[in-house]
Amino acid sequence: MRRLLSRVLGRSEEVVPQIVQADSPSLQGADMAVAYFSSCAGGDFHDFARVSPTRFLFGLLDVAGKRETSQAVRKAAQACFRSAGEELLSAEELNESDAMVELARRLNLEIMRAAGGVRSCPAFAGCYNEELGTLCYVNAGHTPGLLRDDSSVVELPATGLPLGLFALAPTDARIVGVGPQSSLAIVSRGVVEAECRREEFGLAGVKIVMQATTGSAKDLSQSILERVQDFMCKAPKHNDVTALTLTRGN
After folding, report:
1. Is CATH 3.40.120.10 what the domain over 17-248 is classified as, yes or no?
2. How much is the pTM?
3. Distance (Å, rounded) from C-alpha 137 to C-alpha 134?
4. pLDDT class for 16, splitting at 50, 70, 90?
5. What is the DSSP letter of 211?
6. Which tens digits make up the pLDDT trace of 160-182?
7. Domain extents for the chain?
8. What are phi and psi of 17, to 5 degrees?
């Protein structure tokens, strides 16, 4: 009856965003998952790809602008992420830090080319080495990554400016260990900026979920988004809300 009344009055019924779980990749001794709300409105996109027998590349990028206006830039950045990642990280012997810095450089130039100028794109890209249990990452002005071990949760802060702003913007790469029973979470700005009664969910909210969740990566990403929704007392629509997680040994 309500749907019929909506059609009679010329209004479309509101669609409540739902949590979507992306297909999980196959990893050795670890697992990865991505969850997001179905009402994607901004320029967030995630991607992951196996680039060698022991390396797995993943990333979460936020192209400035609405989804419809940033689509061409997102497609160009995603194509570059895959092709350059496979080229730079496929060799058995290589310097992962140098390769990730070069990946960020190429992504930066491709974003500016596709945008026809400046287009801010905070980005977190990581290469997980399954054999060594290490993560080599670049954080170009993105929300800090969070790494939990058996005693604490540490932040993986920015190593450079957002991509798409300057042709010669320098970006560093860092390597951290991902030990047994550890977990990693990369969340979009929409998670951190989720608000209720003028209080933000923040990184502190994500840390609480990480300390309380010891299951799989799918469990962790789902729990983060469910906690955001509980915090806001409604399904979020203010921005793209995405959680990319990696767990090891859980």
Report:
1. no
2. 0.89
3. 10
4. low
5. H
6. 999 999 998 889 999 999 998 89
7. 17-248
8. -60, 145
